[in-house]
Amino acid sequence: MEQVCPLCNGMEEIHVRCSRCDVQMSDSGMVSDYVGPYSPYELTAHVKQENDGRCTHLLNCPQCGRASYAIVQSEWI
Asked: CB 3.0-4.6 Å disulfide test: which of 26, 35, 42, 74 passes with 53?
């Protein structure tokens, strides 16, 4: 068994509306992918291990550009 993020693996979609303009926000992936120059190449399982199985996703509003975060608990499969 392994821990996987339901958003990263396309098992679920996130439905969050922008608090500013009420438009559906889009998932821009894991926040850790934006942190350092080699972040997208790090092992995802290692990142989740350090965060107790939680995956933090960056959300962006396509209309007003507002950014937000969603913390998603990984699931065992």
From this structure: 74
Measured CA to CA, the distance from residue 23 to residue 77 in angstroms comes to 32
CA distances 48 to 17, 22, 25, 66, 73, Å, are: 26, 30, 23, 26, 9
Q: Do residues 59 and 67 touch, judged by C-beta distance below 8 A?
A: yes
Give residue-wise pLDDT tens across range 10-60.
999 999 999 999 999 999 988 877 776 666 556 555 555 557 788 889 999
User: Are 25 and 18 contacting, i.e. CB atoms less than 8 angstroms apart?
Assistant: yes
CA distance 48 to 40: 13
The pLDDT assigned to 1 comes to 80
pTM of the model: 0.77
In 1-77, where does DSSP find H-type helix?
44-50
